[in-house]
Amino acid sequence: MFYRDGACVPKPSAVPADGLSGLKQNWRKDLTTGLLVSLIALPLCLGIAMASGFPAFGGLVTAIVGGIVVGPLCGSRLSIKGPAAGLIAVSLASVEALGAGDSFAGYRYTLAVLVAAALLQMVFATLRFGRFGDFFPASVVHGMLAAIGIIIFSKQVHPLLGVKAIARDPIPLLLEIPHSLVKMNPEVALVGITSVIIVVFAGKFLGQLAKYFPGPLLAVVSGMGFCLFFDFAHPHQYTWYSDAYSVDDKFLVDLPSNFVAGITFPDFAKLFSLQSLEFVLMFALIGSIESLLTVKAVDTIDPYKRHSSLNRDLGAVGFGNLLTAMLGGLPMISEVVRSYANVTYGAKTRWSNFFHGACLLLYAVVLADVIHLVPVAALSGVLCVTGFRLASPKHFKECRRVGLDQFIVFSGTVLATLLTDLLLGVFIGVLLQYLACLVMGAPLRSLASRVKPGIADGNGEICIKMPANCFFGNVISFKSALQRASDMPLRLDFSETVLVDHSFMREVRAVECAASQESRSFATPGLERLAPVSSHYEAARSLRCKSAHMGELARP
Q1: Is 555 in contact with 6 (CB distance < 8 Å)?
Q2: For residue range 418-462, what is the model confidence (pLDDT) as tens digits?
Q3: Cβ-Cβ contacts under 8 Å for 497 (sequence gap 6 or more)
């Protein structure tokens, strides 16, 4: 049994073999799953690359290396490695800042930055920093992803309409949308809007068939049909309500027909500039955090309850990023949408990731001329939906349901990221969570506290004395203490605790569920003293809070 979406789910008994034995045992299922995931990955790889200021070829390179090379090496069995929407904002900012108007030069300088970031990720793995994925507060991570969604939407809505935006920053880009609607290219906009409609409604109309014909792929096929109908490949003008518009192949994906010809090497001339070093840190930290969080999330939905080696996975991703950067590819992480699809399609082992990469290699070599017929607007439509889903109002609503403290941290992270950058936005979000802990009664000196290993009593029960402030900063030490108490009766003593924040409560609830399903004794004496800030099952609890929500906690 294990914890998933607030519920405990039974674990199947027969765990698939790993390595070559797993390949021999499950190759049919993993091949089928890899093929299906590659159909989702193809349009996303192309769209993410172009949105990042990279050639479309760069997105395919990353997914190919992530599958064929990194797949068999990584520490996660079911996550899919490849380019992700979460790094679009950093990649595009790097290309624009380092290129100073020359996009190709900025692209090559960014590749050099990615080489350095990849080496830094490998250092992180060597120093066993994988566990620090648990340090960041849940609402800060969700706020970062929501901000990324807004950034993606603000940048992609304009090419969806066939208009080149004037502004560069997210908020001015959003304010520029009415101007782009007035100046839109009707034929191009028709492609983009149709793409959005297909992605949004494909699953509802196709039902189970959507597994074999995913929305993004249908949007791309539809766009190719429009390309042929409107003859985008040949420059020409047309008239719409007495206004003249032009279309040509600049509205199409630019993909080299020769795979080797698409390889681009880094330019290290600006690597040691202050600006480049800032981007090195951003790529290494944000890429590592997002990748680790995805691996942890995929572990929770693995039907075989397998635990990934976070440090091994981080090292493998770093090695993959080193290879892709040397070949002209995008930064690689464990990607959440494709990983979730990989699990739901029934993947058994890490070989599904390998087959997904092999299928993409086949597409790049055999179907390059066909892929060139894909309109950029169709990919922009796919990414606009992705961005909206990342920043959906339901995420703001859910965060408010957890508690006002988390809503402030979440919204503050979003706003700070939009006004500054991802790294500073995350830093401000963490600072807001620290301040929230202090406001809710945590003693200042307790912010440096950690959870110490438990002590076994005469009955074989492990008792862990919880510190005064149980917050996101000591989740790492809490998990370390739990490892020493695995499979034993457990008591978490909160008798001297004054605050348990949301991130820590999530861990406590997961432990509670696991103990319940394993029929282990589990108790939390003293926790009942602390009043929750809302009726949410994982809401923060504090001595300072009023007890209006006591007795009405709802499981998610």
Answers
A1: yes
A2: 998 777 888 899 999 999 998 888 887 777 788 888 887 767 788
A3: 466, 467, 468, 469, 470, 526, 527, 530
Give this prediction's pTM: 0.81
- What beta strand segments (E) does 180-326 contain? 236-240, 243-247
User: How far is 439 from 498, CA to CA, in rounded Å?
Assistant: 12
Q: Judge whether 452 and 462 are in contact, CB under 8 Å.
A: no
Q: Three-class SS of residue 10?
A: coil
Q: Distances from the Cα of 423 to the Cαs of 277, 417, 430, 434, 464, in angstroms?
A: 13, 8, 11, 17, 35
Q: Strands, E, within 299-449: which ranges?
A: 333-335
CB under 8 A, 24+ apart: contacts of 431-435 = 432/140, 432/408, 433/137, 433/139, 433/140, 433/409, 433/471, 433/472, 433/501, 433/503
Q: Which domains occur in the chain, in start order? A: 22-390 (no CATH), 394-443 (no CATH), 446-542 (3.30.750.24)
Cβ-contact 112, 270 below 8 angstroms: yes
Parallel, antiparallel, or unpaired for β 522-523 and 490-493?
Answer: parallel
Give 126-161 pLDDT, tens digit per residue: 998 887 777 888 898 888 888 888 988 998 999 999
Phi and psi (nearest 5°) for 49? Answer: -60, -50
Contacts of 28 (CB under 8 A, 6+ apart): none
Q: CA–CA separation, 433 vs 437, rounded Å?
A: 6
Beta strands, E only, 316-384: 333-335
Nearest to 137 by CA among 442, 529, 534, 501: 501
Task: Please check whether residue 221 is in contact with residue 43, taking contact to mean a CB–CB distance below 8 angstroms.
Answer: no
Sign of CA dihedral 272, 274, 278, 279: negative
Burial class (CB in 10 A: 0-12, 13-18, 19+), 312: middle
- Over the stretch 475-528, which tens digit does the pLDDT of each residue have? 888 988 887 777 788 899 999 999 999 999 998 988 888 788 778 888 999 999
| Displacement of CA 211 from its chain's centroid (Å) | 21
> Token digits for 23?
């390949």
Q: Report which of 156, 80, 74, 91 is spatially closest to residue 328, judged by C-alpha positions.
A: 91
End-to-end CA distance of the chain: 18
Residue linked to tokens 């990989």: 342
In the Cβ-directed half-sphere of 65, how many Cα atoms lie within 13 Å? 25
Query: Please, are residues 28 and 543 in contact by the beta-carbon 8 Å criterion?
Result: no
